[in-house]
Amino acid sequence: MKIFNSLTRKKEEFVPLEPGKVKMYVCGPTVYNFFHIGNGRTFIVFDTIRRYMEYRGYEVEYVQNFTDIDDKMINKANEEGTTVKEIGDKYICEYYKDADGLNIKRATINPRATEFITDIIKFVKGLIEKGYAYEVNGDVYFRTKKFEGYGQLIGQNLEDLQAGARINVDERKEDPMDFAIWKAQKPGEPAWQSPWGPGRPGWHIECSCMAKKLLGDTIDIHAGGMDLSFPHHENEIAQSEALTGKKFANYWMHSAFLNVNNQKMSKSLNNFLTARDALKQYDADVIRFLMLSGHYRIQLNFSNDLLESAKASIERLYNAIGNLENLITEVNTEKMNDEEVKYLQSLNQYRERYIEKMDDDFNTADAISVLFDLIRDTNSNVTINSSKELCEKALSLIRELGAPLGILQKTTKGNLEEEIEALIAERQQARKDKNFALADKIRDELKAKGIELLDTPQGVRWKKVD
């Protein structure tokens, strides 16, 4: 398995710290609002990577944090006349609703920054004792110049970073690039007692501390959106490695931005879309399909046209699943014959190709293409004359390859079947009433859904077609 390591800017063979186990930290949301669809792409991407690693037999310890103390949260609490904790509690609950709606697996643990204040204070004290941090009037800053590797993730040295940065002048700092790891309390802000007076942690120190406490001094994978690579992840590396003297993460992974209608998402352009709003219009399988239809390191566009295309693709995949589900109940033979056993063995090529694509830096786009090749094959070769066992195993393979992508796990029975039967009954009544225009309209509607009607002496039957 190869992973593109943002730190070295090349694909590398994945070698875990401990055989068979993966320690993975993914930066989660700041919980002051509903998360938007751009965040959703990041969460879906790394959920998929986690799922695939589990599919390949790894035991994944997956940590995704909640930033529940931050300037944005303080401002939100002031706007709503409530507390930061109440804001955090509310939007953590809302996060779970939307993440569950997108079929994102729950993390092994979702730590809150405020649960680690004692550990963060200890972390900051350690950096001061080692000379990497200094206190000024209750604020504590990290000395970027003292850490020799600063800028390694972004691929620039400190001088170049400083020249290109827009930095607010703060005469209390020893150097303009120094950043706060502890912030003194301002009037009306929540605070915790510390050796430097009442205050709260800086954003970057929170993730460093939680990763260290929960996963160890060195972890396998640290991941997040591309926008976090600098300064957040760069600062995490500096803090963590300065304190421990050890490499913080062996592999860094970053997902690319999501554009909406070919424009960067922003409230000023009125193209800001929450995951919740997207889920009101489209099923989770459709949204996940679109998010995974391009490589995670390439910018992706999100539009209604592309969503409709993704919806049609998902329907095509589910039509194949529905066809197999129907065959399982209709075929007359139970067990496979020798020819079917040989055919089933030929389907293994799709699993092998799928793994080859996903092992190459999680190429979900090509993995999806393999899925379509598989359903073309089964649609042509698994028929009413096949055995029940072959139908079941073909269906199982489609679901198996869909599972790491978080799609194709639902049955087509139930609501869809009831809807189809209701439309057929409506069409039959229309024909009795000699309302042939309505009958033809219903037939066309069913055809658009991939449903073919068969008028037989025993009545109207239906089947899914590709």
UniProtKB/TrEMBL annotation:
Motif 'KMSKS' region positions after renumbering to this chain = 264-268
Alphabetically ordered keywords of this record:
Aminoacyl-tRNA synthetase, ATP-binding, Coiled coil, Cytoplasm, Ligase, Metal-binding, Nucleotide-binding, Protein biosynthesis, Zinc
From the Swiss-Prot or TrEMBL record, state where the protein is found. Answer: Cytoplasm
The record lists the catalysed reaction(s) as:
tRNA(Cys) + L-cysteine + ATP = L-cysteinyl-tRNA(Cys) + AMP + diphosphate
Molecular function per GO: ATP binding; cysteine-tRNA ligase activity; zinc ion binding
Q: Which InterPro entries match?
A: Cys-tRNA-ligase, Cys-tRNA-synt_Ia_DALR, Cys-tRNA/MSH_ligase, CysS_C, Rossmann-like_a/b/a_fold, tRNA-synt_1_cat_dom, tRNAsynth_Ia_anticodon-bd
| Nucleotide-binding as UniProt keyword | yes
Tell me the domain of life. Bacteria
What's an example Gene Ontology biological process for this entry?
Answer: cysteinyl-tRNA aminoacylation
**Can you tell me which family this protein belongs to?**
Belongs to the class-I aminoacyl-tRNA synthetase family.
Q: Which PANTHER family match?
A: CYSTEINE--TRNA LIGASE, CYTOPLASMIC, CYSTEINYL-TRNA SYNTHETASE
Q: What does the subunit comment say?
A: Monomer.
Q: This chain belongs to which protein, by name? A: Cysteine--tRNA ligase
| Organism of origin | Clostridium celatum DSM 1785
- The gene is cysS
